Amino acid sequence: MDDVVQVVTTIDSEDTAKGLVRDAVARRLAACGQVDGPVTSAYWWDGTVETATEWRATFRTTADRAGELQTWLIERHPYEVPEVLVSPVTDGNPGYLAWVRSEVG
């Protein structure tokens, strides 16, 4: 079952997050995606603690397509060092997981 993964990134614009989700699905890099937020992030950057309002974009894809999705996200992301995390899905509705696999081929 761990051939399905979840890919997550955060971004400073709801519209940009929605565009990334829509485009990744249209390109069949992901079967689906969701945008949630706003969330407040705190992080070290250039030697100081920064805070920012961000939106989280979460994608479902297969492990085989995750590298391509990750590269695509990094190339289109406006951040200098974007967060792009890939996590295996170790359990879930078998029908849903089969649907994810079928949509990204």
TrEMBL record:
It holds the Pfam family CutA1. InterPro entries: Ion_tolerance_CutA, N-reg_PII-like_a/b, N-reg_PII/ATP_PRibTrfase_C. Gene3D superfamilies: 3.30.70.120. It comes from the Bacteria. GO terms for molecular function: copper ion binding. One of its GO terms (biological process) is response to metal ion. Belongs to the CutA family. This is Divalent-cation tolerance protein CutA.
